[in-house]
C-alpha cells in the first residue's frame, strides 16, 4: 500500500485487500460494502470484453456529489450563513451522457445543476437539467444562437444564467431578449486580480482570457440601468483556475470576489448568487502538498474557507449573504473512473544474450570488456566508468568499420551484464554512487502497456500530470523489477514519465516480473476528470470500451455490470478521418479476385481473406491479447 501510495491518493475509495488486489469502497455511506477489483477483472474477461477498458464506478460518482453538497449544507448550517448552496457540474470535465445523468440523479435532492461552456454543451444541459430549481450556468464565448438557446431555456422555466464574458455579448443579448420578449438571468464574470499558481495560473490576472475588468463591469451596470434591465443581473462569477493546489490562493480569491459582490450590492445591483467557479483540487500524487498534482487542503477546509470567508466580508460590508455556487468538475468526477489494461511485452536492455566465448584474434575492445566481467571486486564506480568508456569506444570503432557485428553483439551482452552486476552489488545505505539514478533508468525494463497515452491519459503527456498506475493484483508480493510504462503508439512520447513511489515521484516504478501464460493487469486511476474526454486518436487508437459498475447495497461486496459501451471500432475511427471503409474492403477484394483469377490463390482462400479483412475493420483498434 505504501509503495504505490494507494491509501493516500485513494480518498477512502481505494485500498489494498488482504488478497493483494485493489479494493474499492465506492459508497461513502457504506464503509463495509467493498468491491474486489480482481473479481471485476474476472467478470470483464468472462464477458469477453476487450482490454483496454474504462471502468466507471457509479457509486463513487454519487458519493462525490453527495459529499460536496452535504459539506456545504453542513458548513452553512454551522456558520449560520443565510444563503444556500446551489452548485453546478461543468460538463466539459466529463460530457459522457451516463456520467451527466448519474450526477443529475444524485444531485436532485440538493438542486444540483449543470454548467455549459459551448453551444453543444448548452444543447445537452437544456435537455438534461430538467430541475426548475437547479441552476444552469452558461459560460464561454457566445454568439446569437448561443444566446437564443439560453433564452429558450428561460421560456422552459429554467434558471438559466447567461454569464457575460465580454461587453459585446451584452450588446448582443439586450436587443435579442427584447425582440423575443424573454427576460434573461444575467451573470457577470470578473477577471480576478489574485494570481493563482499551478498549471492553470493563466486563468486569473490582467492577461486572463476570460472575464470583465472592473471598468467593464461598471459599464455593464450602466448599460443595464439604461435599458431598465438591472434587475436581470443575478450572479457574480469568477474562476481562477483548475486544480488549485494552495488553499491560500482560494482564500484570497474568495475575499476578492466577496468584496466585489458587496460593492456591487451597495451600488444597487440586485445580485443573488456568488459563483466561485471550479478549482477544487485532487490529491493525484497523494502528497497532500502544493505540487501541481496535489492540494494542501481538504474539501471541508475548502468549503469552510468559502462559507466563512464570504460571510465575514458580507458582515463587514453590511450586505445580505449571497447564495453560493461552485462549479467543481475535477473533484466530482476524477475518482469514479479508471483505465484497466494488460502488459503485452517487456523491452529490456539486459534481455538479449549473445554467445560471448573468446574468439581467436578478437578485437582488444572485446577483451577489455571481458576483463571487466570477471572484475567483480573492482570498485563499482571505476568498473562503471570503464564499461561506459569501452562502450563509447565500441561505437566509434564500429562507425570506422573496425568491429564486426558479432563483436558488437558480444560487447553489448557483456556491457549490460556488467551494469546489472554493479547495480545488484550496490549497498545503497552505505555507498554513494553518483550515477545511481542514471544506472537504474538504463536498467529499468519498459513494460509495454496495451493502451494509448494520447487517448487515455492526455494530461500526463501534455502538462506532466501525475496519475497513479498500480498493478491490480499481486500487491501482496514484493515487486522485483523497476520499469517504466510505455504505450503501443509508435510515438516515443507515448510513455508515462512520473510515478508515485511511496511519498516520492520517481522516473520509474517497481512492478512484478511477468509470468509466462499469466496476464498482468494494471490500472490507471483517477482518470474521470478531463482524461476521459480529452483523449485524441493518435495512431487511430479509438475510444475505449466502457464498463459501468454499480454496487449492491448489501455487505457481501456484490457488484453488477449495468452497461457495456463498446469502444470505437477500426472502421469508425477510419471513417472519422474520411476513409470510406466499403471502398477499402472492395479494393482489397478486387486485388484478391485478381490473384484468384491468376490461380495464385484458391477461390475459397480468397473469400477467407476478404472476410478476415472485414472482421478486422469491425474489430478493436487495440491489441487483442
Ligand atoms: N468553471 C470554469 C469556468 C472553468 O473554466 C473550469 C475549468 O477550468 C471549471 C469550472 C472546472 O474546474 P475544476 O475541474 O477545477 O473544478
TrEMBL record:
<dbReference type="GO" id="GO:0008792">
    <property type="term" value="F:arginine decarboxylase activity"/>
</dbReference>
<dbReference type="InterPro" id="IPR000183">
    <property type="entry name" value="Orn/DAP/Arg_de-COase"/>
</dbReference>
<dbReference type="InterPro" id="IPR022657">
    <property type="entry name" value="De-COase2_CS"/>
</dbReference>
<feature type="active site" description="Proton donor">
    <location>
        <position position="490"/>
    </location>
</feature>
<dbReference type="GO" id="GO:0006527">
    <property type="term" value="P:L-arginine catabolic process"/>
</dbReference>
<dbReference type="InterPro" id="IPR009006">
    <property type="entry name" value="Ala_racemase/Decarboxylase_C"/>
</dbReference>
<dbReference type="InterPro" id="IPR002985">
    <property type="entry name" value="Arg_decrbxlase"/>
</dbReference>
<feature type="domain" description="Orn/DAP/Arg decarboxylase 2 N-terminal">
    <location>
        <begin position="84"/>
        <end position="334"/>
    </location>
</feature>
<dbReference type="Pfam" id="PF17944">
    <property type="entry name" value="Arg_decarbox_C"/>
</dbReference>
<keyword id="KW-0479">Metal-binding</keyword>
<keyword id="KW-0663">Pyridoxal phosphate</keyword>
<dbReference type="InterPro" id="IPR040634">
    <property type="entry name" value="Arg_decarb_HB"/>
</dbReference>
<keyword id="KW-0210">Decarboxylase</keyword>
<protein>
    <recommendedName>
        <fullName>Arginine decarboxylase</fullName>
        <ecNumber>4.1.1.19</ecNumber>
    </recommendedName>
</protein>
<keyword id="KW-0745">Spermidine biosynthesis</keyword>
<keyword id="KW-0460">Magnesium</keyword>
<feature type="modified residue" description="N6-(pyridoxal phosphate)lysine">
    <location>
        <position position="92"/>
    </location>
</feature>
<feature type="domain" description="Arginine decarboxylase C-terminal helical">
    <location>
        <begin position="571"/>
        <end position="623"/>
    </location>
</feature>
<dbReference type="InterPro" id="IPR022644">
    <property type="entry name" value="De-COase2_N"/>
</dbReference>
<dbReference type="GO" id="GO:0008295">
    <property type="term" value="P:spermidine biosynthetic process"/>
</dbReference>
<comment type="function">
    <text>Catalyzes the biosynthesis of agmatine from arginine.</text>
</comment>
<dbReference type="Pfam" id="PF02784">
    <property type="entry name" value="Orn_Arg_deC_N"/>
</dbReference>
<dbReference type="InterPro" id="IPR041128">
    <property type="entry name" value="Arg_decarbox_C"/>
</dbReference>
<feature type="domain" description="Arginine decarboxylase helical bundle">
    <location>
        <begin position="360"/>
        <end position="440"/>
    </location>
</feature>
<comment type="similarity">
    <text>Belongs to the Orn/Lys/Arg decarboxylase class-II family. SpeA subfamily.</text>
</comment>
<keyword id="KW-0620">Polyamine biosynthesis</keyword>
<dbReference type="InterPro" id="IPR022653">
    <property type="entry name" value="De-COase2_pyr-phos_BS"/>
</dbReference>
<dbReference type="InterPro" id="IPR029066">
    <property type="entry name" value="PLP-binding_barrel"/>
</dbReference>
<dbReference type="GO" id="GO:0046872">
    <property type="term" value="F:metal ion binding"/>
</dbReference>
<keyword id="KW-0456">Lyase</keyword>
<dbReference type="Pfam" id="PF17810">
    <property type="entry name" value="Arg_decarb_HB"/>
</dbReference>
Amino acid at each position: 500500500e505504501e509503495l504505490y501510495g494507494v491509501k493516500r491518493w485513494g480518498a477512502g475509495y481505494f485500498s489494498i485487500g488482504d488478497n493483494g488486489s485493489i479494493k474499492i469502497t465506492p459508497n461513502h455511506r457504506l464503509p463495509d460494502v467493498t468491491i474486489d477489483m480482481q473479481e471485476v477483472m474476472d467478470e470483464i474477461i468472462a464477458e469477453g470484453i476487450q482490454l483496454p477498458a474504462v471502468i466507471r464506478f457509479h457509486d463513487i460518482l454519487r458519493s462525490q456529489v453527495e459529499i460536496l453538497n452535504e459539506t456545504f449544507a453542513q458548513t452553512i448550517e454551522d456558520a449560520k450563513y443565510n444563503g444556500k448552496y446551489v452548485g453546478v457540474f461543468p460538463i466539459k470535465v466529463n460530457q459522457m451522457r451516463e456520467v451527466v445523468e448519474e450526477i443529475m440523479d444524485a444531485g436532485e435532492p440538493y438542486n444540483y445543476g449543470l454548467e455549459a461552456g459551448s453551444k453543444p454543451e448548452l444543447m445537452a444541459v437544456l435537455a438534461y437539467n430538467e430541475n426548475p430549481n437547479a441552476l444552469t450556468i452558461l459560460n464561454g464565448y457566445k454568439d446569437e444562437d448561443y444566446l437564443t438557446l439560453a433564452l429558450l431555456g428561460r421560456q422552459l422555466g429554467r434558471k438559466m444564467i447567461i454569464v457575460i464574458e465580454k461587453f459585446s455579448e451584452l450588446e448582443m443579448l439586450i436587443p435579442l431578449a427584447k425582440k423575443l420578449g424573454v427576460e434573461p438571468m444575467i451573470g457577470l464574470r470578473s477577471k480576478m486580480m489574485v494570481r493563482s499558481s499551478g498549471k492553470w495560473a493563466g486563468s486569473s490576472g490582467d492577461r486572463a482570457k476570460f472575464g470583465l475588468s472592473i471598468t467593464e463591469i461598471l459599464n455593464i451596470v450602466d448599460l443595464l440601468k439604461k435599458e431598465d434591465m438591472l434587475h436581470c443581473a443575478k450572479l457574480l462569477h469568477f474562476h481562477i483556475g483548475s486544480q488549485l493546489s494552495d488553499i491560500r490562493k482560494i482564500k484570497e480569491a474568495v475575499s476578492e470576489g466577496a468584496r466585489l459582490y458587496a460593492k456591487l450590492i451597495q451600488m444597487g445591483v440586485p445580485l443573488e448568487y456568488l459563483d466561485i467557479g471550479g478549482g477544487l483540487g485532487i490529491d493525484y500524487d497523494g502528497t497532500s502538498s502544493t505540487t501541481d498534482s496535489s492540494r494542501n487542503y481538504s474539501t471541508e477546509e475548502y468549503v469552510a474557507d468559502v462559507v466563512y470567508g464570504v460571510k465575514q466580508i458580507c458582515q463587514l460590508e453590511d450586505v445580505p449573504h449571497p447564495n453560493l455556487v461552485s462549479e467543481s468538475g475535477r473533484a466530482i468526477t476524477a475518482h469514479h473512473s479508471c483505465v484497466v489494461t494488460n502488459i503485452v511485452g517487456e523491452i529490456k536492455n539486459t534481455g538479449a544474450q549473445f554467445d560471448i566465448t573468446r574468439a581467436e584474434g578478437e578485437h582488444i575492445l572485446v577483451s577489455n570488456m571481458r576483463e571487466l566481467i570477471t572484475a567483480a571486486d573492482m570498485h563499482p564506480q571505476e568498473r562503471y566508468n570503464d564499461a561506459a568508456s569501452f562502450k563509447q569506444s565500441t561505437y566509434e570503432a564500429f562507425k570506422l568499420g573496425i568491429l564486426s557485428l558479432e563483436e558488437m553483439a558480444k560487447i553489448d551482452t557483456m556491457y549490460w551484464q556488467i551494469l546489472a552486476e554493479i547495480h545488484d552489488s550496490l549497498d545503497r545505505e552505505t555507498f554513494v554512487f553518483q550515477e545511481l539514478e542514471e544506472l537504474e533508468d538504463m536498467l529499468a525494463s519498459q513494460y509495454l502497456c496495451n493502451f494509448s497515452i494520447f487517448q487515455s491519459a492526455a494530461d500526463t503527456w501534455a502538462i506532466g500530470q501525475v496519475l497513479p498506475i498500480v498493478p491490480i493484483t499481486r500487491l501482496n508480493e514484493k515487486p522485483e523489477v523497476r520499469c517504466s510504462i510505455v504505450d503501443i503508439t509508435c510515438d516515443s512520447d507515448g510513455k508515462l514519465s512520473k510515478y508515485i513511489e511511496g511519498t516520492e515521484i520517481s522516473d520509474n516504478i517497481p512492478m512484478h516480473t511477468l509470468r509466462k501464460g499469466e496476464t498482468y493487469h494494471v490500472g490507471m486511476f483517477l482518470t474521470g476528470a478531463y482524461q476521459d474526454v480529452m483523449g485524441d486518436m493518435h495512431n487511430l487508437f479509438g475510444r475505449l470500451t466502457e464498463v459501468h459498475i454499480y454496487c449492491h447495497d448489501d455487505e457481501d461486496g456484490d457488484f453488477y455490470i449495468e452497461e457495456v459501451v463498446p469502444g470505437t471500432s477500426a472502421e469508425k475511427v477510419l471513417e472519422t478521418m474520411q476513409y470510406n471503409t466499403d471502398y477499402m474492403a472492395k479494393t482489397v477484394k478486387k486485388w484478391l479476385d485478381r490473384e484468384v483469377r491468376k490461380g495464385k490463390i484458391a477461390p475459397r482462400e480468397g473469400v477467407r481473406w476478404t472476410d478476415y479483412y472485414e472482421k478486422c475493420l469491425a474489430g478493436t483498434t487495440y491489441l487483442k491479447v
